[in-house]
Every structure is written in C-alpha cells, then in structure tokens.
Design brief:
By secondary structure, the chain is α/β, with parallel strands linked by helices. 36% of the residues lie in helices and 25% in strands. The protein contains ten helices and ten strands. It has a six-stranded mixed sheet with strand order 6-7-8-3-9-10, sandwiched between helices. Strands 2-1-4-5 form a four-stranded antiparallel sheet, with helices on one face. Bound molecules: adenosine-5'-triphosphate. This is Urea ABC transporter ATP-binding protein UrtD.
Length: 249
C-alpha cells in the first residue's frame, strides 16, 4: 500500500490531561478517510497535531514516508499538508476565478502581482478543472463577497486544491450548510477521491454515508474502531461510546 499519511503512537498532553493517546492510523494515497467521534473525542486536536498547529508529546507523523513530526506549521504546509478550516479565508473583492488563480499561481509575494503577471496555458487548464470540480463554473466571474455560504466553502476548497497538497485535512466541511449544499459538497468530495488523499472530520452521519470509504472512530483520545460505514454503524463499542452524546444517527 502507498501510505500517504501515517500516524504512529501519536500522543499529546495538555498539562496532565492526555487529549490524544497513542493514536496510530494509516491513510492510503487517494483514500478518503472520515474521522468520527463524539464531542471532545480529540478530532480537532488530532488535526492540529498533523498540521503542526500544536506539538505532540510522543509518536510520529509521516507524509509519503517523510517524517514531519513537530515541524513548524509553515514547513508542514510546504511538505504538502493542506488544511481547510470552517472559517473561509477567500479574497472577498476578487472574483471566484481570480481567487483560484491567486492560490494556484502564487509565485509573487503580492496578490495583485500574481494577477497582473497572468497564467500559463497549463495553469489556465488547471484553474478550469478546479472550477469544474468544485461546481463553480457558472459563478467564475462573480465577486467572492456575493457568494452563498456553500459557494464560499467550495471556493476555499478549490483554493486549497489549487495548491496541490499531498494530503487535504477538512474540518467539518458541511458545518452551517443547508441540506442541498451538504449534498453538493458530498458530490464534490466524491469527485476528489482517487485524485487527492483526504482526512475529513464530520458529525453528519447522512453526509458520512455518502462520502466515506473507511472510518476511524476516536473516543476519549484513542482509536476505538476502524472500518466501513456498515461496520462502524453496527459496532457495539461505537454505539456505546456515542450514548450520552447525541448518538449515531
Ligand atoms: N489547548 C487545550 N488545553 C487543554 N485541553 C484541551 C486543549 N485543546 C483541547 N483540549 C481538550 O482535549 C479534548 C479533545 O478536544 P477536541 O477539541 O480535539 O475534541 P473534538 O473531538 O474535536 O470535539 P468537537 O467535536 O466538540 O470539536 C477535550 O477534552 C478538550 O477539552
């Protein structure tokens, strides 16, 4: 198996409190892995450890075999880990297409220099492909400030893809979305499978059923179970762990 992301015995403690305990998991190249867990299970903390926002106290993180454990955040980003947060950071005064162009072709230090110097034929092809993948072709010339919540999230996903990360981390990509937007997000994410390696934190089981191949369940900072959607939904330990929270539904 070609391992894109490998965590081995990863742990972190805040003071005396162990938020992540000896977590090992391996995501294959082109795989989409869903990270599931009740509130406080440690999902965000695990993403923070992978992206370098916080430092681990034990264990390792590897990307395509390269040890990136406890590297500074910017070096981890350069090593190919791209993370999308819930709060989008698009350039509101630029069009959708310009936003993707800036993300894709950031050779120059200033945003406006990147726009002025134009793009190569290959970059233009890539921008068109991203607009298509994210379902934003019809709004390519629209100013980002006027996009809906869903469109803004898809644009940010497109900007992340434009940087061509080896592994994409998504934190609750459907938070705040309508049912229709959630369903479209599932379509987009399904189209990314095989092209990109993704680790997705998500609560919405309806959405998880639509996108997941393989699920890892975290509970109290530990890996509780791993398997297909059907295996996870029928796992007695998982059902028990969700009792007392909002339940698995
Ligand atoms: N900086 C910190 N200092 C102390 N405790 C922390 C810190 N960050 C997280 N924790 C604790 O670690 C545990 C895991 O938190 P985390 O936010 O990773 O959970 P989560 O699975 O993402 O939950 P949610 O679904 O609510 O976002 C929680 O008990 C939380 O209170």
């Amino acid at each position: 198996m070609n391992q894109a992301l490998a965590l081995n015995g990863l742990s972190v403690a805040f003071g005396g409190f162990k938020a992540i305990k000896n977590v090992s998991l391996s995501v294959a190249s082109g795989e989409l892995r869903v990270l599931l867990g009740a509130n406080g299970a440690g999902k965000t903390t695990l993403m923070d450890l992978i992206s370098g926002k916080i430092r681990s106290t034990d264990g390792s993180v590897r990307v395509f075999g390269h040890d990136i454990t406890n590297w500074p955040e910017h070096r981890i980003a350069r090593a190919g880990i791209g993370r999308k947060f819930q709060i989008p950071s698009v350039f509101r005064d630029l069009t959708v297409e310009q936003n993707i162009q800036v993300a894709c072709c950031n050779k120059h230090p200033s945003v406006f220099a990147n726009l002025r110097f134009g793009v190569s034929a290959e970059q233009r092809r890539r921008i068109a492909e991203i607009l298509d993948l994210t379902g934003l072709v019809a709004v390519a010339r629209k100013t980002a400030a006027f996009l809906s919540h869903g469109q803004t999230q898809w644009l940010e996903l497109g900007m992340l893809m434009a940087q061509d990360p080896k592994v994409i981390l998504l934190d609750e990509p459907t938070a705040g979305m309508t049912h229709a937007e959630t369903s479209k997000t599932a379509d987009i994410i399904n189209r990314l499978k095989g092209r990109h390696t993704l680790l997705v934190v998500e609560h919405d089981m309806g959405f998880v059923r639509e996108i997941a191949q393989h699920i890892t369940v975290l509970h109290l900072g530990e890996v509780l179970a791993e398997g297909s959607v059907a295996e996870i939904e029928t796992d007695a330990r998982v059902r028990a762990a969700y009792l007392g929270s909002k339940g698995i539904s």
